[in-house]
Structure formats: C-alpha cells, structure tokens
Amino acid sequence: GSSLWAQRPSACAAARSPRPPVLQSLAGMGPKKAAPKKVTYDYSGLKEGMRVQAESEGAFYAAEVVQVSTSKNHVKAPVKITFKGYDSIYDEWVNGDRLRSKALKTVVPESEKKPPLEFNFGYWKIRGLGAVFRMIFEYKGVKYTDNLYEDPDKWFKEDKPKILEKNVLANLPYVECGNDCVCQTNACLSYLGNKLRLSGGGYKARLMNEQLLCEIYDVRNTLIGLSYPFKTVCRGQEEFDEKVKKEFDEGKVFTKFEECLKKSGTDYFVGKTPCTADFHIWEMLDQWKMLAEKQGRPDMFEEHKIPLCKAFYDRFRALPSLQKYFQSDAYKFPVNNPGANAYFV
Hints:
Order of helices and strands: HHEEEEEEEEHEHEEHHHHHHHH
Strand content: 15-25%
Strand order of the largest sheet: 5-4-3-2-6
Distance between the termini: 94 Å
CATH architecture of the largest domain: Up-down Bundle
Number of domains: 2
CATH class of the largest domain: Mainly Alpha
C-alpha cells in the first residue's frame, strides 16, 4: 500500500540524479552568498478559511488558512494552514516566507523608509521660468522652499556665492535636493523629470520630452528677446508693438506643437499624463495668450488655428492638483521683470 509520505505535497516525484563529481568538489569554493534580508510580515489581513498558496519542499500548493495566532508560542510561524486535498495530518504552522497571498503585507522598518523628497528652489519673483517649476512641485505635491529674489543684491551678493560653492555653474533657476545642486533651466527640468518620474514612459517618450524642452525654450527666447530692452531686439515700445504684431500675423509660434499633438494623438505631448515639457509649453501658451490679449488681438488659438493646443491648454488648466497654484499670488506674479523695464510684464 502507499505510505503516508507518498501523499505529502512534493515538488517533484522523480528521483534527482546526484551532482557530477567535479561540481561536488567545487561546491564549497564559490563566493559566499549574502545572508537573506529579514522580512517582517503583517498577518492581520489573513483570515480563517482564506485561500492562499503555501510552500512545501520548494514548491507552492493550494492551501487554506486554519488559524492566525498571536501567541508567543507561534511568533516564528503564526499561520496554521491546511493543504487542499490532503489530510489534516499535514497541516503546518508557517511564516510569511512560505506563503503567497495578496492579503499578506510586508512591514518596512522605520530605519529603511526613505525620507520624502524636499526641494530648495530659487528664482526671481516673477513667473518667467519660475512658474514652470512651481507648477511641477504643486502637481507632484512635494515639499519645496520657493526662494523669491526681488532685490538683486540678495542673489548676487548673498546667495549666489553659496550656490557657487556647490556648483560652479551657479545661476537662476537652481534646484537643490539632498546633496544635489543643479543649475541651468533644462538641466533642472531633466533632474526633476528623473526624480519625480515626469520624463516620459519609455525611451522614445523621454527622447521626445527632451526635444520639446529645447523647442519650447526657443519659443521663450523669442519672447524674451522682444520683451527686454537690454536684448536690443526692440529699442522702444513702438518697435516692440510692431515686432509682436509681425509674430502674431505670421502665426507660426506654436505650429510645431500643434503638429506634435496631432501625431501623438495623446492628451499631453508625450503621453496620457504631463511630463516636464508640458509644464513649460503650457506656461508659454499662457504668456503668449496674455500678450495677444494685451495687444488687442483675436483669440490666439482661433487666429493661429491650433485647436489641439487649445484643448491641451484647457485640460492642463483644469488639473485638480494645480488649482491651488492658479489661485495663489505666484500665478499673479509679473510675467517678466518690471525692474528691467520689460515691455511685457
């Protein structure tokens, strides 16, 4: 007759062949494996009668929870299980290492928990480039300090020397997190994209996001060139008005971005959710829209025939996590620096 042993769950009934002599002689010569990391389990989700998988001799089998004990006698193996289809003589007390169940959770020790990300950000007290970063921080709900520079001496004489000690490329904006100090706008945005998972899902998406960051910076440079007298593109308000009119008459500022949305077929420029480029593109759409209104132009989106950009603009503006920002004083900051006699503020 069959023995009780034959009825016990087993990974394989076939006999295993002995290890070859050469391998046997070398078995103890390899590098020592690191001790497995101890895992702490939360058994509170396991209930009597719950179906689980339990390990026996290296394989997992269908089983059912009989009891979950809080007794000190069972602290090392607090869950009693019975294997489905086997006699109760094979019931066992097991721990989490030998169980598989969605109801079984692991507990992360306090010492291993990563502290939440916290950023230190610096930029002028204007929207400019700063708005892009403030929106990103608000969208992700991370803690950040917004160092607003209004007095040039505060930056150039007090804080810039401190940043220079950490980064020889010190400039505004800057982003600090832990031991990292990053300067230069697109480098900062790439850094945040990696830290906050806003760079795009997959190689092609990340590549497109980087290209869009560069492309929208060109759009910003056009606006900056027009807006500030020190750029010498416009030598007075009248020349500014003339050149802005020409830009709007040509209607090509956002043509490439309309084509990007048409080709991607997604709600945002590189996917279903915003990436870093989306924040800068939206800010530029908003600034150019404001400029068009100040110049008494028709609706920019209709005049330039960019309906997909309009849909993106509205969709982004309605994001719940950004409503606090849009209601804040930061959104009402001047677009450009009045102290530099900008034509468009």
